[in-house]
């Protein structure tokens, strides 16, 4: 955009913001999320109250390919985005005039998918003079917890999704320090790969979770603790061990009960995730532990983290299942922090596939 237009846009945005702050009206944010295979739009009041949270999932479409096909995902986002936004406004009983700002995921994720949400958010922002906020997808997952309860700092968040496994320390709103992260596969990715080896449908996490409940963790599998003081994770060795176990059994003409293998794999993943999270929380004297991301839906992880946190006297927050997987309400909740600080994006906002969480902190 040329300079005079950009300047006029900025002035208009700033005016809208100041008018809204002066009015003392509740702050309704429109959230938009299209980083992977869910097209989602939501309206959230004051960063905590969900007025609507519409999620158009493409999981059924990608299932037959055994994973998300980026081109297909982008095309479906294009088809769904307008309808999803309209539906979110309708269910919230709001009009665009009632929206104080638009918060949109700008990374990490599939670039073609991110761009669909960003283009929609920019178009509305420009047409209506509504401030635009860029949100990091993982910050969104963390802020899903603020839709449940107020955050207390310092806190440690375990973020476990299809693309991420990170232990994040937060000492205040909107600032993130990475204590540890995966050196190879993300926890969700490991679940999906093991599920595939067991011929379970995509995404495999929920299927392994269910199957594991019918089995016993009787098959010895490795746990990657890494260096004694490390908060990093590694799941590729475990995934290979599962594949080797299956391969060796088939060469011997034996079959391994899939439920036992699922239970053994899950026991290994969950033990490492839980122990490192609790150790990190104790070390930083955390006042709260948060669980976030798609794998937070995992039953064993929820149960064991709850038990360990209770034993250590650490308050734990876990979002309901509907807020664990990708959704736009969590993006609006995270965007609200930027709104309060008057931190807005320009119309140059771009999708950044490898955006680091630490890049969003000042
Ligand atoms: O956060 P999310 O919806 O998308 C990403 O940002 O990646 O997470 C999706 C991941 C998938 O890998 C899926 O298999 C996993 O979360 N997942 C689970 C469960 N439900 C979803 N993994 C283990 N147990 C579950 N119950
Ligand atoms: Zn996610």
**What small molecules are bound in this structure?**
5'-O-[(R)-(carboxyoxy)(hydroxy)phosphoryl]adenosine, zinc ion
Q: What profile does the largest beta sheet have? A: 5 strands, mixed
**Distance linking N and C termini:** 26 Å
CATH topology of the largest domain: Nucleotidyltransferase, domain 5
**Poorly predicted runs:** none
Q: Round the mean pLDDT to the nearest integer and report it.
A: 94
Write the layout of secondary structure elements.
Elements: H1 3-23, E1 28-33, E2 38-45, E3 49-57, H2 59-63, H3 70-92, E4 101-107, H4 111-128, E5 132-136, H5 137-143, E6 155-160, E7 165-170, E8 177-181, H6 187-197, H7 205-212, H8 236-251, H9 258-283, E9 288-292, H10 299-312, E10 316-317, H11 321-324, H12 328-340
Parallel strand pairs: 1-4, 4-5, 6-9, 9-10
Antiparallel strand pairs: 1-2, 2-3, 6-7, 7-8
Helix pairs in contact: 3-4, 5-12, 6-8, 6-9, 7-9, 9-10
Bound molecules: 5'-O-[(R)-(carboxyoxy)(hydroxy)phosphoryl]adenosine and zinc ion.
């Amino acid at each position: 955009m040329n300079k005079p237009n950009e300047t006029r846009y900025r002035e208009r945005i700033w005016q809208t913001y100041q008018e809204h702050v002066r009015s003392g009206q509740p702050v309704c944010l429109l959230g938009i999320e299209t980083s992977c295979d869910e097209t989602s739009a939501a309206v959230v009041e004051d960063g905590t109250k969900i007025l609507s949270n519409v999620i158009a999932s493409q999981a059924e479409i990608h299932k037959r390919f055994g994973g998300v096909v980026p081109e297909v995902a982008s095309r479906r986002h294009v088809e769904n985005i307008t309808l999803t936004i309209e539906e979110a406004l309708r269910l919230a009983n709001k009009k665009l005039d009632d929206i104080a700002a638009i918060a949109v995921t700008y990374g990490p994720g599939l670039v073609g998918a991110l761009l669909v949400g960003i283009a929609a958010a920019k178009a509305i922002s420009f047409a209506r003079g509504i401030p635009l906020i860029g949100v990091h997808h993982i910050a969104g997952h963390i802020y899903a917890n603020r839709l449940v309860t107020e955050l207390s700092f310092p806190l440690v968040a375990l973020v476990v999704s299809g693309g991420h496994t990170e232990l994040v320390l937060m000492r205040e709103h909107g600032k993130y320090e990475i204590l540890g992260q995966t050196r190879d596969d993300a926890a969700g990715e490991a679940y999906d790969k093991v599920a595939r080896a067991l011929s379970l449908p995509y995404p495999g996490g929920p299927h392994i979770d269910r199957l594991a409940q019918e089995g016993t963790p009787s098959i010895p599998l490795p746990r990657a603790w890494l260096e004694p003081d490390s908060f990093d994770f590694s799941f590729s060795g475990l995934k290979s061990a599962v594949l080797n176990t299956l391969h060796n059994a088939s060469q011997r003409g034996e079959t391994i009960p899939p439920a036992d293998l699922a239970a053994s794999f899950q026991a290994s993943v969950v033990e490492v995730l839980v122990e490192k999270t609790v150790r990190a929380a104790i070390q930083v004297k955390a006042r709260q532990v948060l669980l976030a991301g798609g794998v937070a839906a995992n039953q064993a992880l929820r149960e064991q983290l709850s038990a360990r946190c209770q034993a250590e006297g650490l308050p734990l927050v876990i979002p309901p299942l509907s807020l664990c997987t990708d959704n736009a309400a969590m993006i609006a909740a995270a965007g609200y922090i930027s709104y309060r600080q008057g931190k807005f994006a320009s119309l140059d906002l771009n999708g950044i596939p490898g955006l680091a969480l630490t890049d969003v902190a000042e």
